[in-house]
């Protein structure tokens, strides 16, 4: 595994966004519904006062009868970002925000995963690629 990158200019100029196929759904599930989901079916999760918030593929949501509160496209920044790096989330969130695209971010140990409204996926990829290209010119 590569060493995580902390330098913001390097992170942005090498972030390499990758769009995953399919639709991802955000849902809140109670303990009984959570017990029916396998770990392999959950893309991301966090415990909240209202229940377990999960991100699952749309097929999984349908299979388990989950109410999708948000249908999203998933974009992974393939650069190995350091969890202590400062400014990466702010940079891509600002760029997406200026384009009128909301984003929800899940940071894994190695990569950042951005969930945008499904119908804005291609536009979001264009914004992220432009951000990366502009940063690469400056480095």
TrEMBL record:
| Pfam families from the UniProt entry | ACT_3 (PF10000), ACT_7 (PF13840)
SUPFAM superfamilies per record: ACT-like (SSF55021)
Q: Where is the DUF2241 domain?
A: 5-72
Superkingdom of origin organism: Bacteria
Q: Where is the CASTOR ACT domain?
A: 75-129
Query: InterPro entries this protein is in?
Result: ACT-like_dom_sf, CASTOR_ACT_dom, DUF2241
Gene3D superfamilies to which the protein is assigned, alphabetical:
VC0802-like
Q: What is this protein called?
A: ACT domain-containing protein
What organism is listed for this UniProt entry? Answer: Neisseria animalis
